[in-house]
Specification:
403 residues; alpha+beta; Cytochrome p450; four-stranded mixed beta sheet; three-stranded antiparallel beta sheet; 16 helices; 11 strands; globular; binds protoporphyrin IX containing FE
Length: 403
């Protein structure tokens, strides 16, 4: 087997768009990833994506950001504000667990911190299963743990959520409720289109478990990285403090710059389904592997200029290029959560009052509005269990609010 590594922006982008290359990162993680959207190719992938994409329509992203999410955010933030301090990593996971559960279609009937924590523990296990390829633990042991977590998830969360949605679908068929009264989530669209989607109970369980883990860690980590980069930037550029507290468009640009420099998945792997010629003698065939270095591509000086490797929220991004680089992927597997998390790209005439900023920018903006700052007595700690440069703990202070 030959492995070809690609690290420049243009070739990585072209490879992601090449339909003769299929997903290859998740073979080890089959326990959670086999047959889920990200693992599919060709017609099967197209059919499933077209069903699930209905949840991510633009009007709903906007509605979710402006109407639904602020309430989740307020509830999650309240105890941190009352304490006047907290850990950004904990906060990030709590808030994004709710976000992805809303989109996947998993109800949390009690809405207590304990319930969120129990769902989060299961989702962390799913994530460990999905990224088994990079695990340093005994893979069979991890697989057994993931199977066990799937069973608990099924009983405690999935089956009650399925029952509620099937009931709603029956009510709709009987004319007792309107289309708009249905929950708007992946589980509902899959149950409603069961004849087309044709998922076995096990596959449905994996699909929903995949959604829960696909969104939560990436969003939580992106939020912490974005604030860390902002603190560092402001320490060197105090002149930007005013804009940081008054201009949400500037804050969104800061978030995009962070997303570019710290992609949640630093690499994508692909496998050819037929011979593919990358030029310069690099021909790959079935059984070979193509490693796409998203992290390096996002720092390509040919696209983002000589300072591509450093953080600069004032960067002028060339027309037609993404301010967040290839962090959300491109092509058939483009992240379905991209606009939800990253928001819409800014244009010259973007109206700050009506813009969709994305959940990460909204989280960062809200925390800045509450005076978030590093806790001088408790420095952040890096997560040594991963090479992805994430934070294990990031203590911050906030303006204390009486409850
Ligand atoms: C900062 C946050 C996020 C980042 C950086 C991110 C990144 C990515 C990337 C790079 C891919 C493509 C992987 C590949 O081509 O092999 C992807 C796919 C996907 N992401 Fe995200 N993601 C984020 C948040 C989310 C959220 C919040 C959701 C759901 C609510 C989500 C759902 C998905 C799904 C369903 C796919 C598979 C799409 C397909 O295969 O057609 N992501 N994501």
């Amino acid at each position: 087997m030959k492995t070809v590594e690609i690290a420049n922006y243009r070739d990585v982008r072209a490879a992601l768009l090449n339909r003769n290359l299929k997903q290859a990162l998740y073979d080890d993680g089959a326990v959670i990833m086999q047959g889920v959207l990200l693992d599919l190719h060709g017609k099967e992938h197209r059919d499933r994506r077209s069903i699930e994409h209905r949840v991510f329509r633009r009007d709903f992203m906007r509605y979710y950001e402006k109407e639904l999410f602020p309430k989740v955010l307020e509830e999650t933030l309240a105890p941190f504000l009352a304490a006047g301090s907290g850990d950004l990593v904990t906060f990030g996971y709590q808030v994004t667990m709710n976000l992805t559960a809303d989109f996947a279609g998993i109800d949390r009937p009690y809405k207590t911190p304990e319930e969120t924590a129990s769902l989060l523990a299961l989702v962390k296990k799913f994530s460990e299963g999905a990224t088994l390829v990079h695990s340093t633990r005994d893979k069979d042991v991890v697989r057994a743990e993931v199977e066990e977590a799937l069973v608990v998830f099924d009983t405690e969360f999935l089956q009650p959520s399925i029952a509620r949605r099937q009931d709603a679908l029956q009510q709709l068929a009987a004319g007792n409720i309107e289309e708009d009264d249905l929950p708007r989530d992946i589980l509902t669209v899959l149950l409603r289109n069961q004849d087309q989607a044709d998922l076995s109970p096990d596959l449905l369980r994996r699909e929903i478990a995949f959604y829960l883990q696909a969104g939560s860690h990436s969003t939580a980590n992106a939020t912490v990285h974005a604030l860390d980069d902002i603190f560092t930037w402001l320490a060197a550029h105090p002149e930007d403090s005013k804009a940081m507290n008054a201009d949400p468009l500037f804050v969104q640009r800061c978030v995009h710059e962070s997303l570019r420099l710290r992609p949640a998945s630093p690499v994508a792997w692909r496998q050819p389904i037929c011979p593919v010629d990358f030029g310069a003698g690099d021909v790959v065939d079935k059984g070979d592997r193509v490693v796409l270095d998203l992290s390096a591509a996002n720092r390509d000086v040919a696209i983002y200029g000589p300072s591509a490797g450093t953080y600069d929220p004032h960067r002028v991004v060339p027309e037609g290029r993404e301010p967040y680089g290839l962090t959300f992927g491109v092509g058939v597997h483009t992240c379905l959560g991209r606009d939800l998390d990253g928001g819409m790209m800014q244009k010259g005439d973007t109206d700050a009052d009506n813009h969709q900023y994305g959940i990460v920018a909204l989280l960062v903006w809200t925390l800045l509005q509450h005076g978030v700052q590093l806790d001088p007595d408790n420095p952040p700690r890096e997560d040594r269990a991963t090479e992805r440069g994430n934070w294990a703990s990031y203590p911050v202070l906030l303006n204390k609010v009486k409850r």
